[in-house]
Amino acid sequence: MIYLDHLASTPLDPLVLEAMLPWMRPDAAGNPHAAHPAGWRAADAIDQARAEVAALVGVQPGEVVFTSGATEANTLALLGGVPAGGGCVVSAVEHASVLGCLPELRRRGHPLAVLPVDCMGRVDPAALDTALSGLPGPALVSVMAANNEVGTVEPLAELAAVAARHGAAMHSDAVQALGTRALDMAAIGLQGLSLSGHKLYGPMGIGALIVRRDFRPVPASPGGGQQRGLRGGTLPTPLCVGLGTACRLARMRRDEDAQRIGRLRDRLWQRLQSRLPGIRRNGGAEGLAGCLNVTIPGIDAADRLLDLPELAIATGSACHSGAGEPSHVLLALGLSAADAHASLRFGLGRGTTAAEVDEAADRLASVLGSAMPSS
Ligand code: PMP
Hints:
Largest sheet: 7 strands, mixed
Function: Catalyzes the removal of elemental sulfur atoms from cysteine to produce alanine. Seems to participate in the biosynthesis of the nitrogenase metalloclusters by providing the inorganic sulfur required for the Fe-S core formation.
Catalytic activity: (sulfur carrier)-H + L-cysteine = (sulfur carrier)-SH + L-alanine
Pfam family, one: Aminotran_5
CATH architecture of the largest domain: 3-Layer(aba) Sandwich
Protein name: Cysteine desulfurase
Bound molecules: 4'-deoxy-4'-aminopyridoxal-5'-phosphate
Radius of gyration: 21 Å
Helix content: 25-40%
Family: Belongs to the class-V pyridoxal-phosphate-dependent aminotransferase family. NifS/IscS subfamily.
């Protein structure tokens, strides 16, 4: 199997697994919220993990709210974070977990604006300025740090400056950016940020919403009052430890990973171009190091991938694969539905090798070459 779907999910780093295992053993029993030594040990491990998550984005440990993943973090930020009587602005290329909140916000009577993107997938700060000028009262802005389908990196600092001028809070879904890019929330001017364990070589089933002091979303599950009442529920010690370890490794390896993975992505693109004339790239070369999204005009990507079961790559967004709908991101970039269906996303990661990249390009070319129109 050649695994080139790291944007959908990254394999667990062996060091993360090693850090988690002791907390999954029977002798590690202990509710981290309990007042006895077993509970205190678990709570200490979670405190350390919280500090690692915080350090990755330059905030205080107390600003980290663990969630079940980025979907829950985005939902808490959006459904809980839009101010009473205020509006919400998002981009057209947000993940489904953000866009999926809009019908409920509309039902609650919040005015909404969805910003278009250019042909690279970039949001224009001037468009945000116009949208915020048209909204009554305070607002929440949510724009992702980097797109999960085409890898485009958004101009977050410029967008946050516009939001601040309008007195709006700014949240960002940073799930895809954190593995290969430095991101300091204070320097950028973000009040909220979502991240996910399984996009950072950490475990599935855990993520976090970073809630800065000046951002106060209404909790969806106040429950037992854990995590400052922002998200009730017993914290899963092994998962928290795994996420913390993954964040520490990301901080240590991010720059090296970005360089090496970026070189492999360029190699893949060159090889595909030389074997599949007519292939086009979606999103810019300046995007995420691990992302290459291409259109091979005339093919039915989902259909052709059935001939390549040994290759794990995505058609459109992994989250939408199988749904049969053309990717909303590719449509927002201006692609036709036919071209969206003829598109493939490669997600390269920490374990990807040059040999894998070469083999993936060659296998794809041998299967797809015959499917391409001759014109
Ligand atoms: N946002 C983005 C940009 C993503 O790529 C994903 C995962 N596909 C999510 C949010 C959802 O993350 P999770 O799987 O942790 O719910």
